[in-house]
């Protein structure tokens, strides 16, 4: 993962957990630790974590690869690719795409409205 992608992951965490702040040392550590992790794995882990935890994820939770996929991984990744293509075709920023974000947005909106 590139440094810019790590920063996106950190921004996602801050958006979901506004009390989470980052200092320079923490940012450097996260960049160093997440560099070897594929972006899609970290992104998927953060999205799943946000759905299930009221606390921000740790580095270990972001980099672990234990997909809880109830379908064939090839089908899952193809569905993700199709969703990304649809996002871009609808005018979405390819770099801002988050697989499963539509479900996350609905949950967050419901929480805000209640």
UniProtKB/TrEMBL annotation:
It comes from Cohnella herbarum. It comes from the Bacteria. This is Replicative helicase inhibitor G39P N-terminal domain-containing protein.
């Amino acid at each position: 993962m590139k440094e810019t992608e790590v920063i996106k992951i950190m921004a996602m965490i801050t958006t979901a957990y506004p009390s989470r702040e980052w200092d320079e040392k923490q940012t450097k550590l996260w960049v160093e630790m997440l560099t070897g992790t594929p972006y899609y794995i970290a992104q998927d882990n953060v999205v799943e974590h946000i759905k299930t935890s009221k606390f921000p994820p740790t580095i270990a939770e972001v980099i672990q690869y234990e997909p809880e996929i109830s379908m064939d991984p090839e089908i899952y990744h193809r569905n993700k690719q199709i969703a990304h293509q649809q996002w871009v075709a609808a005018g979405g920023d390819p770099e801002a795409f988050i697989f499963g974000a539509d479900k996350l947005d609905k949950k967050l909106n419901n929480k805000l409205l209640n």
